[in-house]
Amino acid sequence: MLCADYHNHPQAHRTDLPYSKKVLEPWALKAKELGLLDIALTDHDRYKDGFDFQEVWHLQERHPEIKIRAGIEMDNDPETSADGHRWVRENYDMLDFVLGSVHFVHDFPFDHPHYMKEYEKYDINDLYRGYYKNLRTIAATGLVDSMAHLDLIKIFNFFPTEDMTDVYDETLSVIKDRDISIEISTAGIRKPIGEIYPSKEIVQMAKDKGISFTIAGDAHTANDLCHNYDKLEVFLKEMNIDEVAVYEKHEKNLIPAFV
Q1: What predicted TM-score, i.e. pTM, was given to this entire model?
Q2: Domains in the chain, start-ordered, CATH in brackets?
Q3: 33: how many CB neighbours lie within 10 A of its CB?
């Protein structure tokens, strides 16, 4: 059994689910049912208006046996993220955890299935380079604790035709220099790519640099907490990863991955 789930969306990408006892309580109950010790609530920054610190803190008070972290996913949406990043800066001291992510390259929402045909307009190697450049930009803000789904760009099985090892290495060096973790996520298993983010190649490169890891299922309902964690357990064991990072007020603590 794994100890934590550090990427969760109680608002489920909706504007009609602002934080409340009704919305948040199922997440704590499911986490306890699963035996989790630590969870982070990380709705996208564009849904910040539905975020409520008091509701998160009240949830923690009702469930002291697990750690419930006030978090946010800070991404690079060209329409909303400037305001989202401002909100993160203003509320940074109250947040426990900031998850950095990239969902746009050249204003192209590359991971959205409605826009798959748009790939035809781009050189895949340029898209990969642009994606990792954007990851480095997010990492360099000084606001991020962990980087989400580090090879999300592979979601629809489009792969570079050129060697990207130097691009991966440069990106991981930026992450390491800022003592940021990277996320190992099961979200890709339920996407067309059908595998964990990031690849074993990238995870091994991160390990070699001494980068820490958070773990996550990227749930959008409480019932999806720890989605495909049986496969994540196998992955971590294959990669000889036995500890993961958790955060309180951005302070990293490494704890045993398995409980």
Answers
A1: 0.97
A2: 4-256 (3.20.20.140)
A3: 12
